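Section 5: illustrative case.
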């Protein structure tokens, strides 16, 4: 999974179709699970990074992929991280609309816009 450590507080993940999608989401979920466990245990230095999910190469989503997205979102939120999804094709957007995921995730047109939105919301908070 191509991960770009864009800053100390944001990482950009370029997702691919299955089976890579499932593997990549499992890696992300495990990382956020560890961070959430560290925060819950009060371990020093525990932190999570905000996440930009670049979906320009994703051509389909199945129910398992959707469950993985929701799991990563839940774990990220436990650690105080934010997620933005970007570069969604029309086909994927249709799936997101049909499943009401458009209401719980934040979306941007592209990676640059996602990064700007995360920076602005962080500085405005």
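Designed sequence:
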């Amino acid at each position: 999974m191509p991960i770009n450590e864009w800053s100390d507080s944001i990482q950009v993940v370029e997702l691919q179709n299955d089976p890579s999608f499932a593997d990549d989401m499992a890696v992300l979920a495990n990382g956020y699970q560890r961070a959430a466990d560290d925060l819950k245990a009060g371990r020093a230095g525990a932190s999570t990074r905000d996440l930009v999910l670049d979906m320009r190469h994703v051509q389909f989503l199945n129910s398992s992929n959707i469950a993985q997205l929701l799991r990563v979102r839940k774990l990220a939120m436990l650690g105080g991280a934010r997620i933005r999804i970007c570069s969604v094709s029309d086909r994927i957007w249709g799936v997101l609309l049909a499943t009401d995921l458009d209401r719980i995730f934040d979306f941007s047109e592209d990676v640059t816009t996602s990064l700007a939105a995360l920076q602005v919301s962080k500085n405005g908070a």
